[in-house]
Amino acid sequence: MEPDAVCRTVLNEIEECLSQIKQMPLPPFPVYENTNKAAAYISYRLKEFDSVAYYLSEAHGGGIRSKLSLIMNPDTASKKELNDCLSLNSEYVTKRYNGLLERLKEMPSEWTLIQITKNYNPKDVVTPRPTDKPTEVGELFISRYQCGEKYKNIKPLTIKVDKAKSSLGQKTIFEVLKKSLEDTNDRQNKDPSAIRNLRDSASQSIKSISQEIHTSWIKHWICMLLGNYVDEKLSTEVYGIIDNVIEEENMTISERSRMILYQITNAVVQLTNDEINNLLKEVDCSTEEMNKFESAINKYKLNGSHLMLKKRHSVLLILDEHLECLPWETIPCLKRHPVSRVSSVHIAHRLYHKHKDSIQNGLMKIKNQGYYILNPDKTLSNAEKRMSSFLKERNVNWDGIQSQEPTSEQFSSLLKKNNILLYCGHGNGTQYLHSLDLDKLDLQCIPMLFGCSSVKHTDKGGRSNFVGASYGYLKAGCPCVIGMLWNVTSLDADNLARAMLNVWLPGNPINLQEKWPKEFLDQQDYHMERELLRTLAIARKTTRSFFNYAALVARGIPVIMTD
Q: What is the pLDDT of residue 71?
C-alpha cells in the first residue's frame, strides 16, 4: 500500500476508537487526549491541516474536563450552554473543525489562543509514568487560534517543531529545572550562605531555561507566540504588508503560507534576519515570490523599531501538561505582554460563556470588592506586617483577617461574596476548603494566592492527568487565578503582591521604592494599570531573584478593574 493509504487506514481506526471513547459514561481523558495526538500526527503527515487543528484542540484539558461534573440533563439554558463547551458529544465536537471555528468566533477578537502540544508517543498510552523522572519531549506542535470575527481571513495555523537540541550540556531543560527546584526546597540545609548560593544558582538555571526555550527549542517559530497589536492601525498593517505583495504581483498562494507570512510581519521586530529567512523557507512559493516577500518584510522591519514598545492584546497559553512547569511567560518576546494560561480551548470557551455579560473588549470587568487573609497559620509574621502596612498606606478599604485561620464555611463565604480574595500564607488556601466543597460553588471571585506552588499542576504519575488547586477554582467559575508555579521566598512573594495591587486597585499608587533598598521600579511602573495581566510584568521587576520572578503566573481570562 502507498504510505498515504496506510495513514488513511490507521486514521480511520483511530476515529473508531475516539467514537467509542466518547460514548463511555466516564471517558478516560488521558487516553482520549493521546489518541487525538495520534490522529493529529497522521493528519499532519497527510497535510490535512484543518483536521490537525481540530484534533490538537481535543488533546488538551482532560484534567479539568474530567473534574467538571458534566450535567447529563441540564435544567436551564445557561447550564446547557456551559455543558456544551466541555462535552465530548456537543455539536462543537461533532462538527469537528467547523465546530472549532464556531467556538473561536464566539470568543472576543482580542484573544489569541496559543497551544503548545507534545507530539504523540505510544509509550504515554501503555507505560505508567514515574513521578520522579523528568519529562522526555520530542517534537512539538504549536497551534495558533485567533478568536472573534474581526480578522475574518485568519484561520488556525499549526506547525511542527523538531526535537530540541539542548545547549545546557547533556541535561534537558526539564532535568535542569527539576534539580533547581529540589535544591531550593531542601529543608535539611540550614546554612544561610549555602541556601543563598543555591538560590542564586537556581535563578541562573531558570534564566538559562527561559533563553533556551527560544534559542534551542522554538527558534524562529517564536513568531507564533505573540498577540495582536492593540492599535488597530498597526494590526491592519501586519496583514496589509503581505496582502499588498500578493495583490500587486498577482500571486496565487496557499492559505497556510499566507498565515505563516502574517506571523512573520506580526513578530518582525522580535526576529533576527536568520529567523526571518528560516520562516520564509516554510512558505510554499517560487524563489522570485519569496524575494518579493523578503523585500517587503525587511523594509517593514527597518522602519518598525517603534513597534517593540507597542502594546499587544492578551495571549492565552494552552500548554501540554508536561510543559506546564516551564516559565513560558519569561521568554524575551512575551515578558512585557499580558499572558495567561488556560487548560484548553474548551475551558477558555466555558469561562467566556460563564462571564460574557461582564466582558467588553476582551476584558472581564470587576469592581473593587475584596477581602484579605494574611498569615493564617501565624508562621509568617514579617509578611503579615509588610502586607498589612501596605494595605493601610495604600487605602485599600477591604475587610480581612490576620493571624487567624478561616473556617471552611467562612472561606467558602468569602469566595462567594467578594470579587477578589488576597491570600498571603502557605499553599493555595484549599487546606481550609475541601476540593469537593469548592467544586460545588458558583464563583465570580479572583483568588490571588501568594503562597508557595499555589497554582502548580502536579504529576501524580501513572496514566492520570495532572492535578492542581487552580482546576478547582476555575471549575467553580473563577475568571482568573493568580499564583506561583513553585516555592518562592516570603519577601519576594510580598513584593509581587504589593507591586500588583499598587497599580491595579483604584486610587493613587504609592511610592513603593521607599520600602525597598534596591531600585526595582521605573517611574512609569507607578502609573495606574487596570488590566490585571499587565500588572504581572510590573510586579516581576520587584523580585530579588529570577527564580522568584519566573514563578508568578495567571490562569484564566483577562480581567480589568473598574473604578
A: 46
C-alpha distance from residue 269 to each of 140, 234, 264, 297 (Å): 24, 13, 9, 10
Q: Are 51 and 39 in contact (CB under 8 A)?
A: yes
Those residues with Cβ within 8 angstroms of residue 273's Cβ, 6 or more apart along the chain or in another chain? 298
- Reduced to 3 states (helix: H, G, I; strand: E, B; else coil), residue 46 is coil
DSSP H or E run through 259: helix 255-266
- How many CB atoms sit inside 10 A of residue 287's CB? 7
Which tens digits make up the pLDDT trace of 147-186?
999 887 899 999 999 887 665 544 677 777 777 777 777 6
DSSP class of residue 522 equals -
CA distance linking residue 212 with residue 218, whole number of Å? 9
First to last CA, the chain: 67
Burial of 148 (0-12, 13-18, 19+ CB in 10 A): middle
Residue 278 amino acid letter: N
What is the DSSP track for 195-224? HHHHHHHHHHHHHHHHHHIIIIIIGGGGGG
Using CA atoms, how far residue 47 sits from 146, 159, 323, in Å, is: 21, 11, 26
Which residues in 43-68 are b (16+ Cβ under 10 Å) and which e? bbeeebbbbbbbbbbbbbbbbbbbbb
User: Under a CB-based contact definition with an 8 Å cutoff, are residues 486 and 502 in contact?
Assistant: no
pTM of the model: 0.94
Rounded-to-integer distance, Cα 350 and Cα 366, Å? 18
Comparing 146-150, 441-445, 457-461, 479-483, the range with the smallest average pLDDT is: 457-461
All three cell numbers of 126, joined, read 501503555
